[in-house]
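The methods section describes the discrete structure representation at length, but only in general terms. An entry of this sort, consisting of the sequence and the corresponding backbone structure tokens, reads as follows:
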Amino acid sequence: MSRPVVIVVAAGPGVSGSLARRYAREGYDTGLVGVDETVLTTLAGELEDLGATAHHVVADITDADAATEAIGGLAERFGRVDVLHFNPSAFRQKHPLTLTSAELLQDVGLGVAALLTALQAVRPYMSAGGRVTATGSMAADEPWNEAASLGVQKAGLRNLVHSIDATLEPDGIRAASVTVRGTLGKEGPFTPDRVADALWDAAHQDEAEWRTEVPYSG
């Protein structure tokens, strides 16, 4: 039987990298999607050192056609997807009087809409027991007006995850977002590794008590 597979969208050196390493240590092979070839190559090498098979693709996930081809290609290469993790968001320091509608839509395209592209690309390769997870933020509930689009993204992402879970539950596939209620740092409860552990735990909840939104307060 082939090893389970996780695909990480917007893979990089932070939480997503920590999560990819956690899955590799747990026996998963990994598909990485990101925008920086050097970062992806380095991370893939780290995963292979942990015993995983790791493939990566560089793609603009806001380009639906290109992202579908890239993510679907990874899924086809592995032949299965057990976990899809969605990590991206756009930080734009603009308040509602300077943020334009076009900028808001651009940011939502990255931080929310791209999840639909990724999900639809991998769905044919997911089966019962599959999981979809997303990195959420307290900005969904406590937005900072100086970065207004971020709160909109995180609120929209959490809402979309609820809908994804309701849609896929009849097929035995569940979805959850983790609301990180703190600021990422190099020490303390909000290091990338600690947040990655929370994301792992969310994906491996008891299905009888499944929560589509899991708060992480450290």
Summary: Helices lie at 15-25, 37-49, 64-78, 101-122, 148-168, 192-203. The chain has six helices and seven strands. The domain at 5-89+114-137+158-216 is CATH 3.40.50.720 (Rossmann fold). Strands lie at 5-9, 29-34, 54-58, 83-86, 131-137, 174-180, 213-216.
